[in-house]
Structures are given as structure tokens and as C-alpha cells.
């Protein structure tokens, strides 16, 4: 089988075991399989422990891509990730190898696996709209109805974030926001086969708590403090990382450390549930209770006709 444009994806909630499964598979087939990380936070340098980033030892065993792309003081968008992922996949295929996408950030996955058309960012336009939205949201929605009635019909007039985003793109790009397609609300034919591990939430909750406390023992608090104290600090997007966000309250505001740790664990559990709900909505994903069966399916895809990316 030719390796040109061969890929498969392993998705699922945080702490579900997908990273360990992917590493073991790629390690056993290191001469042909490389991992592309689909994660909104492992793109940041020095954000290591709390993002469950592969260790340096693991990276010496398996080829990983899309890690440490930008400084934590920088903003990073899904469009930038999509561009970097396309380049990384092309590099893997050019080397005659196969791509194993792995991650739990659903939006980043859809951007890459479905090759979504992503509207650009227009910060100056957005800033003006956000300022107006405080007092003039009904007027903004009326403008959207006039400029892009289809987009307006897909959202509530009171949803300031969505109204502002739709107008930002419509005005900034000079084309209707709705012209970018149905985006996340539609599931077309699968370009890449996706495999997911089922999660027993009782066990998942235990693993999340144990993992976070292990990270604390390994120096996560010190990692977050160093990031916060570095020139430029943490960007708005980097600050959204679960675990980092909660510990920053202790470092910057003096909140009780144990309360922040408990909250980080709670928020990680909520994240896992949101991720699982996201993936369950996608009817194309194949779910497995057993990791060995999931691995067998991944290998079958990589070595069979289902492994070709369908464009």
C-alpha cells in the first residue's frame, strides 16, 4: 500500500488513555507512523506538565509534530494551527510515512480532519464591535440581518459573542459569514477515519485527580509561576488552559492553593465530559471499549484502503 496521504485519527476526552495507546502504536511502527498532536495547548513552549505533553524521552522514541510552536505569551488561533498541521502532514507523507492524528481538542480536529474553511481574524473590527455590543447589541443584530440574513437566522439575537464574530468576519473579509459553509453543525463524508476510546467516568474522574496531583508533585505550580513571571507572561489563549488557569489564581491573586487544585480537578472533569459530548455528536467516529481493539482498528485503517485521506 502506498503511504501517500495515509492517515487515521485517535480522539477522545482527556485522560482516556489515547496518548499512551498512540505512543505505543507509533513506537512499535516508528519506521512508518508519526504522530500529529491535535491539542490547543501543547502548541505552547514550556507548558509541559499540565498539558500532558509527551516527555523528551517519549519524543526521542516517536516522531511528534505540532508541539512547541509558539511562546506562551503569543496568541494562537485555530486557523494558524490548521496551516501548521497541513505542513506537518505533508512533511510526513513526503517522507513516505503515515499520519496518526491524536488529541482531544475537537475544534482543532474538525479544522484538520474535515479541512474546514475557517474565517480570518480582524482584531480592529472586532474591538469596535465589542465596544458597541455593550450598549447596541440589538442594532448590531439588525445590521447582521441586513448583511447576512442566513447567519443571523442561525443565532440568538442576544448572543453577543456570536453576533460580533459574524459581523467581524462579514465586514472584515468582505463576504458573508454564512458563505464559509455550515461548519461545525454539519458532518460530511469522512476524510479521515476516527477512532475513539469509550470512557467510564468513575474511573476517568479518579485518573484525572491522580494525574493532576502527580503533576503538582512534579512541579506544575513552579512551571505555572515561571510562565506567569516570564517576559510577556501568558497570552489570553494560553491562560485558558485548564489547570493553569486555576493555579494562576493562587499565584496572581493569592487564592488558597488547595482550593485552586480542587477546582482544577473539577474543571478537568468537566472538560472531559464536554469533550466526550463533542465527539459523541459526530456519527462518523468509531467507539471502542477495549484499547487493544482500538489499536487493531487503527492499524487496519493505516494498512488498508480506509487509510487514504479522501479529498
CATH topology of the largest domain: Rossmann fold
Strand content: 5-15%
Q: End-to-end distance, in Å?
A: 18 Å
How many structural domains can be distinguished in the coordinates?
A: 3
Indicate the CATH architecture of the largest domain. Answer: 3-Layer(aba) Sandwich
Annotated CATH homologous superfamily of the largest domain: P-loop containing nucleotide triphosphate hydrolases
Structural class determined from secondary elements: alpha/beta
Helical content, roughly? Answer: 40-55%
Global morphology: globular
Report the total helices.
Answer: 12
Average pLDDT confidence is 95
Top CATH class of the largest domain: Alpha Beta
Task: Tell me how many strands there are.
Answer: 6
Q: Can you summarize the main beta sheet?
A: 6 strands, parallel
Order of adjacent strands in the largest pleated sheet: 3-2-4-1-5-6
* Strand and helix order: EHEHEHEHHHHEHHHHEH
Rg estimate, integer Å: 21 Å
Low-pLDDT ranges: none
Summary?
The chain has 311 residues and is α/β, with parallel strands linked by helices. The chain contains 12 helices and 6 strands. It has a 6-stranded parallel beta sheet, with helices on both faces.
Amino acid at each position: 500500500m502506498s503511504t501517500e496521504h495515509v492517515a487515521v485519527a485517535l480522539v477522545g476526552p482527556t485522560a482516556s488513555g489515547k496518548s499512551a495507546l498512540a505512543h505505543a502504536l507509533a513506537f512499535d511502527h516508528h519506521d512508518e507512523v508519526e504522530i500529529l498532536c491535535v491539542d490547543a495547548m501543547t502548541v505552547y513552549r514550556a507548558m509541559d506538565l499540565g498539558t500532558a505533553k509527551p516527555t523528551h524521552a517519549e519524543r526521542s522514541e516517536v516522531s511528534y509534530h505540532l508541539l512547541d510552536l509558539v511562546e506562551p505569551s503569543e496568541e494562537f488561533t485555530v486557523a494558524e494551527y490548521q496551516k501548521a498541521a497541513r505542513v506537518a502532514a505533508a512533511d510526513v507523507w513526503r517522507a513516505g510515512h503515515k499520519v496518526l492524528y491524536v488529541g482531544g481538542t475537537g475544534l482543532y480536529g474538525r479544522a484538520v480532519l474535515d479541512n474546514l474553511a475557517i474565517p480570518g481574524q480582524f482584531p480592529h473590527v472586532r474591538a469596535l464591535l465589542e465596544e458597541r455590543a455593550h450598549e447596541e447589541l440589538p442594532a448590531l443584530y439588525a445590521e447582521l440581518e441586513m448583511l447576512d440574513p442566513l447567519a443571523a437566522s442561525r443565532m440568538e439575537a442576544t448572543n453577543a459573542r456570536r453576533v460580533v464574530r459574524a459581523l467581524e468576519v462579514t465586514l472584515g473579509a468582505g463576504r458573508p459569514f454564512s458563505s464559509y459553509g455550515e461548519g461545525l453543525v454539519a458532518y460530511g463524508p469522512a476524510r479521515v477515519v476516527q477512532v475513539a476510546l469509550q470512557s467510564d467516568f468513575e474511573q476517568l474522574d479518579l485518573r484525572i485527580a491522580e494525574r493532576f496531583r502527580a503533576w503538582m508533585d512534579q512541579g506544575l505550580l513552579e512551571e505555572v509561576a515561571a510562565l506567569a513571571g516570564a517576559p510577556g507572561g501568558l497570552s489570553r489563549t494560553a491562560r485558558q488552559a485548564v489547570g493553569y488557569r486555576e493555579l494562576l489564581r493562587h499565584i496572581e491573586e493569592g487564592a488558597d492553593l488547595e482550593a485552586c487544585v480542587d477546582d482544577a480537578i473539577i474543571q478537568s472533569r468537566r472538560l472531559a465530559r464536554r469533550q466526550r459530548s463533542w465527539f459523541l455528536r459526530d456519527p462518523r467516529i468509531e467507539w471502542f471499549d477495549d484499547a487493544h481493539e482500538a489499536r487493531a482498528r487503527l492499524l487496519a485503517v493505516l494498512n488498508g484502503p480506509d487509510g487514504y485521506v479522501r479529498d
